[in-house]
Structures are given as structure tokens and as C-alpha cells.
What we know:
The structure is a homodimer. By secondary structure, the first copy, chain A, is mainly alpha-helical. Chain A has helices at about 10-20, 25-30, 35-40, 50-60, 85, 90-100, 110-115, and strands at about 65-70, 75-80.
Amino acid sequence: MTREPRSGCPIASTLDIVGDRWTLVILRDLLNGKSRFSQFLSSPEKITTNILTDRLATMESAGLVTKSAYQERPTRFEYTLTRKGEALLPVLHEMCHWANVYIPGTWTPPASFMARKPR
Amino acid sequence: MTREPRSGCPIASTLDIVGDRWTLVILRDLLNGKSRFSQFLSSPEKITTNILTDRLATMESAGLVTKSAYQERPTRFEYTLTRKGEALLPVLHEMCHWANVYIPGTWTPPASFMARKPR
DNA sequence: AGTTGTAACTTGCAAGATGCAAGTCACTAC
DNA sequence: GTAGTGACTTGCATCTTGCAAGTTACAACT
């Protein structure tokens, strides 16, 4: 499911990984402490299950998250950010700044999110 | 062509505008001084004409660019960034930093681009 | 024993977006 | 009058997304 980079341009290459409407929304949730399938489903944007399954698998193969079982019988999974995934935090911060200035009606993100720094 | 925001989340709302594989690539070209249809076509990512037409119209209706004729007979157009469009520069900067660290083989952007600041 | 509930998917199908190739229109220049 | 350029437009096949419903594997309650 991984896309070939269109060029060596860092912007185009980044978009080859996160250039869709959902990946960074899931990443936002992960940065805010969510880790399970059902938790991502509960977000206000209402992602559907097939897209969520697909996006989590793509993010795993891109090295943004790791998937692991947090219990057996029945097996249940959780997703945790890798350092590579976590390092996208500044991109999300800048999107928040931009939206808060240029898109009326956007929420101010929780201070805990805006104050967070990557490792 | 403008999408309804899925929620008040600044990240989701930003992605409702620029959450695809091409919009920020065109924005990168605009920030690097390109302004004409044929100039965008010449970029290494090889966008096709129908997508470019569609994306420029969507960017115009989202207020990221303005379209104006730079000559009559025959009429030719150029696209210039609005302040709103230009203000996405920090998002692109952070993508460059991320890609240069985490995606091997990405180019180091021109210093003129990385040093640039929004108005 | 049987029903209900929960987590994490999977499947089917329709609608929309993207990619590729070719064609169009209004000119300019040779 | 032929060729070239800029900015599209059109047709069509494929890929992606969205919506609804179904599945699997259990736990827990009645």
C-alpha cells in the first residue's frame, strides 16, 4: 500500500505518505492519547471502519505507528506512535496556528497539545 | 468545489482544504516564484492538466490564490498567493524538516525557500 | 442455553477523485 | 499556411472514498 515517491522533494514526499484527509486526523488522536480502533471511531469527524483499517495499515507500513496486542482471548490491538510519527507534531502545530487565524470557527486546541514537544 | 468542514478541529479543517496530494505541491511552486499554468506543469511531479485546472480553481475558491490576466489577446492568466495562502509556509517548512530527517533521499530545499517568512 | 454487547474488522456497492491521452481555441511567429 | 505556445476541456479507465451491513471471537448477563 506504500506509494512511490513522485520526486525527491521533501514536501511531495511527505504528501505521498500523509497527503489525504484522514492520516493526520488519526495522528492527532494518537498524540492526544488515543490508541484503539474504537477510540479513533469516536472522534467527531466520524471516520468509517474500512477507511480506518486501511489508514492504520498504511501508517504502520510507513513506519508512523506500531501495532501490538494489548490482550489475548480475544486478541485486541493498540496502536502507538513511533518517533517518526511523533515527529510530525510540529506540522500539526503549524496547521493549528494557521486554521485558528484563517478559518473562522475552528477550536483552540487543548494547551496540553500545543505545549507538547517531540522527543 | 469547497468542502464542508467535518468538525471545528483546526487540523481536520485545514485538511478539508489542503488534504490531498497536489494542493501543497502547487503552493510550494507559488512560494518559489512560479505563477503560470505551464510553469506548474513543468515541475518534476508531473501533475496533469485536468487536475491542475481543478486544483487552481479550488484554491481560488478557498482564498489561497487569486487569478488574474497578465495579458489580453490572447488572454493569459497568472496565479498569485493571497496572505492566507502564503501563511501556510510554516506548515511546508515543517514538512521539509520532517522529510529531511525521516525520508532518506529527499532534497534539501533551497536556502531562499527555508529562509522565507510570511508577511 | 440463549441473548446481548463489545472490539476490530471485512465485504459489497455506489459515488467521487485521479491519471492518461487526445483534442480545442485563440492567438503569434516563421 | 504551417508550426508552436498557453491554458484549458473531454473521454474514459482505474483508484479511492463513503455508507451500510455483516462477521468473528469472545464476555457477561438472564
